[in-house]
Amino acid sequence: MDLLPNNIFQGIPGLNLELRKDKYVRKNMTPVFISERTPSAHREDLWELLSMYDMDYLNRLEWLIRTDMTYSGDPMYVKRYIPEEYKVQVDLSEKVNQEKKYLKVVEYMLKEICKGNDLIVDDVCITDENRKQMHAMLMKIYTKSIIEMRERRREGIEKAKKAGKYKGRTPIEIDVVKMDEVFTQFNKRMISEVEAIKKLGVSKSTFYRRLKKYNHS
Length: 217
Prior knowledge:
mainly alpha
């Protein structure tokens, strides 16, 4: 939780996460975190939605666990807690030594660190004791590398423009009818983000860029 930047995670309304409790209990009320991510009990197509996930009645927490739909305000989702699957030890030594791209190595390590897994890379061991420090160091390296890479790309584009050789990126063509169908289903929470992206065959960034344009048209 401490590794998440403010633009991704701003806490959970109504819960003081600084207390670091293993369990938070709310009686006779639905936390905002759950209510804003789940369908209303008065929604017209509620039973249709529930049947898609083999649910006989609306249990909002169970809905969040069974679906992988994300909330428009952040990219978080809910996963059922299974103690034996919560944390594993991952040895990336072989994978890291075979990878030729340094930035990919950093990506591999950051992903496992953020999953909460204990990580081994040759003689380096990353656990809860040094997780935050290692994440800060690797994230600094990763961010700097990305900025430098983008700067080189920008300089290359500017050079190509001056030489009259740059035509810009060709927009990805998407069938208009299919796009309308998928965006409608996604907005109604009938399909998940993963399903929608797969149906259109585009990247996540392209999907949300086209979705934003579609919703404002």
